[in-house]
Design goal:
By secondary structure, the protein is an alpha+beta fold. It has one helix and five strands, in the order βββββα. Helices cover 32% and strands 36% of the residues. The longest helix has 23 residues. It starts with a strand and ends with a helix. The structure holds zinc ion. The site of zinc ion has 8 residues, from loops.
Length: 73
């Protein structure tokens, strides 16, 4: 039974499939992962990560706000 290691939070969870290629939600952190299993072995795990991109945008906006506050003072 192949074990998938979440690239986001590091949690290990098992998928009871010998042939599997689909999106999986991490049971620990809820991250959306693309998992590829061939011949009962894990071939690929990748974060699909739409939420991560949104978080990066929020961080950039916060930095811009800090700059504005400094200019006003
Ligand atoms: Zn996770």
């Amino acid at each position: 039974m192949p074990t998938v290691s979440c690239p986001v939070c590091g949690a290990d969870f098992e998928i009871n499939e010998k042939e599997f290629e689909d999106e999986v939600v991490c049971p620990e952190c809820g991250a959306l992962l693309y998992v590829l299993i061939e011949g009962g072995e894990l071939r690929s795990v990748a974060e699909i990560g739409e939420e991560t991109e949104e978080e990066e945008w929020e961080e950039e906006e916060e930095e811009e706000w800090d700059e504005w506050e400094e200019e006003e003072w």
